[in-house]
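Technical note accompanying the year-one report. For the benefit of new consortium partners, we illustrate the data format agreed upon in the data management plan: each record pairs a sequence with a structure-token string. No post-processing was applied to the example shown here.
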Amino acid sequence: MAVYFDHRIEAPENSGTPFLIAWHSTQPVLAVGSINPATGGSVELYHQHGERVELCKTERNCSPCVLRWHPSKPVLCVGWETGEVLLLTHPTGETTPLPQNTHTSGITLLEWSHNGARLVTGDQAGVLALWRVDARGRFQGSHVVKHEYGKPLTCCIYKPTAPTEDVALLARAAVSGDETALDMFNWKKTGRGPPRQDTLQLYCSTADGSVHSVDDRGRSVCVLTVEGAVQKLVYVERKATLAVVTDSLMLAQFSLMPDGGVHELSKVKLSGRSGQNMDILWTESGLLITASGEAFIRLWDLEKDDNYILSLEEKLGFEKGELLNCVSYYPAKDILAAGTSKGRVALWRMVTTDDSKGDSTTQWKLQTPTEVQGNVSQLQWGSSLWLLAVCTGASVQILCEQLMCSHFSQQVAAVQLTPNTVSLAYFNTDTHHMLRTDTHIMAVQVAKDSVTVWNGKYVTVYEATGSSLSSTGSFQCESPALAVHEDNIYTVEPNRVQVRTPQGTVKQLLTFSEAEGNPVFLNVCKSYLAVGTDTAHIRVFDLTRREAKPICNAKSLKEMIPNLGALRSVKCNAGGNQVSLLVTQVNGRPDHKIYFYDVEMDTVTHFDFFTGRPPSGFSQSEDGERNQCAEADLSKRYPISQFWDETEPRLFACEAAPLNFDLQQDSQSEKADVLVVTFFVTQEHGLLLQDSSPKPASTQALLALDAPYYYYTCKPGEGSEAGEPSASPHMVMRRALRDFTGLENCDKPTRDALLNFSFYLTISDMDEAFKAIKLIKSEAVWESMARMCVKSRRLDVARVCLGNMGNARAAHALRRAEKEPELEARVAMLATQLGMLEEAERLYRACGRYDLLNKFYQACGQWQRAIETAESHDRVHLRTTYYSYAKYLEAMGDTTTALSYYEKSDTHRVEVPRMLIEDSLALEIYINKMKDKNLYKWWAQYLESQSDMESALRYYEHAQDYLSLVRVHCYLGNVQKASEIANETGNRAASYHLARQYEGQEDIGQSVHFYTRAQAYNNAIRLCKENNLDEQLLNLALLSNPEDMMEAACYYEEKNTHMDRAVMLYHKAGHVSKALELAFATEQFGALQLIAEDLNENSDPALLARCSDFFIKHAQYQKAVELLVAAKKYHEALQLCLEHNLTVTEELAERMTVAQGSAHLTEDQRKDLLERIADCCMRQGNYHLATKKYTQGGNKIKAMRALLKSGDTEKIMFFAGVSRQKEIYIMAANYLQSLDWQKDPEIMKNIIGFYTKGRALDLLAGFYEACAQVEIDDYQNYEKALGALTEANKCLSKTKGRNEDDQDSRVAELTHRISLVKKFIQARRMYEDDPAQAVHVCETLLQESDLDPAVRVGDVYGFLVEHHCQQGNYQQAVSRLEELRRSMPSVNIGLYVSQQSLAALQNATGLQLARGDNRDSHSQNLLNSSRHDSGGEEEEEEVVEEEEENMPD
């Protein structure tokens, strides 16, 4: 728990009214600006306790306007009303003014860059200037940048950049004398965050709503404009956005573009009262907080798009109508402070909790206020100590958070209540005192008869005289640590510990070397003093003599504890041979281990609260289940405090909190999951976990351990319990240790025996444990030890204790509980027998045995909790719990409530009549009210037993019990009414009963009728056979089961009448063979057709064949085929299909397809059958089905032929791809060539691919030749034709045909064609450079006798005609045309000569030339696709060649 010490600043009398405050970011120095109407303004500096810094003061005739500290150096920038700006250095008081005439109006802006190398100043006239500042905090020359905006400047921020400094480079620069590098290196070394690179990218705002950007070159650009004056300007670094808040509470957010512009993201109007006095705060977590003189402050969460308010609570000490003027946020502890109009400082702590879904919720808890004097106008957290400065109209106060000090020794407890009040509790005498001092108390130490307090400067000793405390000594001392033993006071100075008298006289000096460090921790336990230093050395002194004597040399713990940063707490035990240590790691985080230094053995052991075990695990116990539970409870924690027993040197206790626990949390929340863990620490056995339990409710922290009690601090007044001091207010509460519950007032021998028993029990040494208590005869002690066994879960020891107690019932219950698998359940039974009901309840809950917990509550008479448990966790026993509670209520005479719980348990139909049977009137009322059919029936039966037939009939009717109605009416002789009821309701039981009545009366018709209504067909059939009712017999048999049908059919057959009915009944009964025999014998062909429809492959094959012959004889071939297939006569079925042209459907074909491995056909017979099915499908034109059957039969060649006949190109290509056979590839390629492959590149690609995969290179060559001819004939594209011919030549060269002569001649022919095409292409290409040579080549080509297959003659003549037309030789052109016509009489000249050349030739010669259409040549992707495919298959072809070459001749 913490309190706030208030220190008023020691301001001079003539300083005036303070109105400006500013903390340095790291040093505890506060700047205060004041105004005195008579003398003017002043700025002074103060330390954390309010002491004024004498040299640091500056005064002017005007008022100061702005105060800004340098981010790292003790340099304050002050802006005045006249425009003057100066730098004030602490502690020398040196001032450095800004050059004159820069600003002529009041300063509104002072903003340092992130590393303090630059300073921005701005004034009311809109003048903005940027200055360089050297490492000593002095201005360097004139301003770097200056702009005049014409409007008052309101806000300015720098855009930060990412840190990029290298630590090694910074170190080298720092060693060379660079002070800036030294500062930056210190930042990195101390881990306070990396320094920002200095930047000139800044944003400033003016009163007219404009925001300007100033870049690194000093250029200023107006990037945005908002409505109203800008009151807050924030750069959100993680989102790279700029947020603007105006005086009208308009919030706008803009994203910064790479080109320097901005883009508006959102604009919202915030609720609240706007004005100049509004205080606006922005946190790094995205919270916008405002205080504007209202009774609450407003918060906007921009991350979650949420808003809410925080208001004051009168129950905490605030007044109604109290207004909030200003706010300040403390991010390290998530504390929000607000100043009120009544002189109070309200503090809210932000608490973040996670729910079961993983979503986090934020709550603000209002704390008890701190009171100051006057209206609070300004608040500010600051310095590395996070002090809070409060400015009121009269003064400035500095609030310093201080943990409340406390101490316990020799049955005396002291706990700080207020900054200057200590509550003292004397447990030996059951008295209580309050000690009030004139100064703040920062430390307190108590002894048996004295109290020593320290305020940071003075130590004062008080002694009790009667009912009051009086000061007996006081001396000046600034020792950071204090300890008391008897009449000696131990204080520290650098490198030594002073032993003083109560008056301050130094009696002895305990010195430490430089390497051992300065003492910072002192702890006295019994007669031993433990000292810890700032260099992590410890030393123990023996105080039993007149002078303190060291019992060990100073020990450096850094050599024994890895990653040790500094000591956090040092405590020694009552024997002086063990020292416990809490430490912080190098990174500053608390270590989750607690260390124990053995002074005699010079060793260090530890217990790790992160894993919940010591290094070697729990070696002291053989109960693994209990160890696992303990480890689970202790894991993920770290120790926060430690205590040794005042007299027992083995006993140690500490508090362990979860890893996310805040050590400095106010009041240490009662809901915090803090455990109090107790150990035995010895040389022989090391660390032994003795007990762990949650910190008791309403307590704040563990204060001390002194068996048989734990001592806790608590809130005032909560410690007043039986056996405690009765004075008020109480600040200390004590609770018995687990082993001493019920034995708190035992004598010392018993206490020692119990401690020894607990110790030996912990190490599982049962012999020594029982030796320790063998002399104890008290039954209370044995019961206490049995209770101890509940805590330690030692059931073996509990049996011995129960035996010594003579508690046979508990021993029997414990023996019966051994069948439970959970240890907690067995221990809970022991706790129940010992009356530890709360512990038993907790154990049942811990192991999840809610069924046993339910029984436990029932046994305790806690029925409501039992019902709640059953409803929530034990629903399988819910109705049983309701029933048991109803039985309990019935026994207690509460029948009304018992009725409702009998109903909930669904036993009211039996239990309520039993309960109310003596009160028939109440029972009848209940039955009429419930309207339950079962209850109606029960009541009717009861009335019938009482011979009240009329009432019984009425209730039977309510219950809809028609059987009972018919039965009673028949009993009364009213058979007609019974018949009406049976006919109306159709109730089978009632109809059967009535049918028996009519049969007894020999009314056969009515009896058959009601037997039929009752669906008792066998009885109705029996009556029909006995009374020759043949017409009704058939219908009844058809409604009945197969046995009755068979019986009726036999009846008809025996009578030799109605044979058609007999056949039908045999068929319906499932005796198809009998029905067919009878149908054939009696020639009932209509019945045969109906029976044949139900035949399938499971029927008798002979029967199927007989039926099929019958249908063939009567020309019903389709039905005959189906029966033949069912009889597995597939060949006969196929022959019948062919003879009578029956269509083989896919369903029929599948039925005729025999599965592989079938016993009916061999594999060869199966394939032959499939081919015959496929042949039949081929004849009928069902090519797809034929393909499928051929494929199933393994004949893929025939399958491909069938598929080719279908003409399904897509399936043909797919089938060829999956078959992977050469013949099929070739067949598919041949088929594709029959299509219009010229217009479909995909088909062309597949043709090439199939020929290649089929290794038909000669056919592929032929296809390439065809492609070349298409390119020449259709598109005159000789280049692509040449490529196709080249590919054809490659294929032919790889072909190994049977006739090598034919192949050689074909290759020679193809080579000649390629040479001719190449010549023509060469002529066309060289025409532009050498027309004459090109013409000569063409004329040479015309002389070739076999030119036309390779190069069209018309193309050569066309080329020459085009040449002569371009040259103007029209006569020669005409002669060439004539030659073309002679060689090709029916030629269309327009196919070879362009229309332009023909027109020019006609105009020049006057001849009428026939014109034809000139088709433009458009290329296909033949060559590319062929090259791609052939290239893709090149590797495969090479492999094929190698295989063929390696094959034997």
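Partners are asked to follow this layout when depositing records. The mean pLDDT is 80.
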